[in-house]
UniProtKB/TrEMBL annotation:
This is DUF4093 domain-containing protein. Residues 5-90 form the Toprim domain. InterPro entries: RNase_M5_C, TOPRIM_dom. GO terms for molecular function: ribonuclease M5 activity. PROSITE patterns: TOPRIM (PS50880). Gene3D superfamilies: 3.40.1360.10. GO terms for biological process: rRNA processing.
Length: 199
């Protein structure tokens, strides 16, 4: 069992069951979109997130990103980390058909990938914080200079970066920038891009 300090926010009960098999920590269920209209539940979530910080771990489909963006706005004054699962085609064992977008949700992702997502987000696992504070952050200007924004093929280049890192394809440029700053310092980022272009 891995002890996670932050409150982990997931969409459904099956996500919580999956995590409880290998995570020792608090897991909060949004019940999908119900969190948006349930002010009492949102207040409880806000209180918990202010106490220990939070890690949002939603599915990589459109619904998951809508829930993530809602939570991001509601928890602006809390220490919120974003854990992303990769786009993996398939269906969960308990379902007869895949979801609308044909992607696995949190409950269908391997334990190792979920743990990696939490580590990459900067969660404190077994007392060790994986959060990074780079000497020089990657900026929007770097993204522009490297062709990841502002160019005719920028979306393609960002998609290549996302695929290489096992990130969902629906990440906005700003979200990708945030993730890269958690994974790399500027020098490592430059080296990563060079290696990606050479392959």
């Amino acid at each position: 069992m891995y002890k996670v300090k932050e409150l982990i926010i997931v969409e459904g009960i099956y996500d919580k069951i999956k995590l409880s098999r290998f995570i020792d920590g608090m897991v909060f269920i949004t019940n999908g979109f119900r969190i948006i209209k349930n002010k009492e539940q949102m207040q409880t979530l806000h209180t918990l997130a202010r106490q220990s910080g939070a890690a949002i771990l939603t599915d990589s489909d459109a619904a998951g990103f809508k829930i993530r963006n809602f939570l991001k706005q509601q928890l602006q004054d809390c220490d919120v980390k974003h854990a992303y699962i990769p786009d993996i085609k398939g269906k969960e064992k308990r379902k007869t058909q895949p979801g609308k977008e044909g992607l696995l949700g949190v409950e269908g992702i391997s334990d190792d990938l979920l743990l990696k997502a939490l580590r990459d987000a900067g969660c404190t696992i077994d007392g060790d914080s994986t959060a990074r504070r780079p000497a020089r952050a990657i900026t929007k200007a770097d993204f522009y200079a490297d062709g990841l924004t502002g160019g005719p093929d920028s979306a393609e280049k960002r998609r290549a970066v996302q695929q290489a890192l096992g990130l969902p394809g629906k990440l906005s440029a700003n979200m990708l920038l945030d993730v890269l700053n958690r994974l790399f310092d500027h020098e490592e980022y430059t080296e990563f891009l060079e290696n990606l272009q050479n392959n």
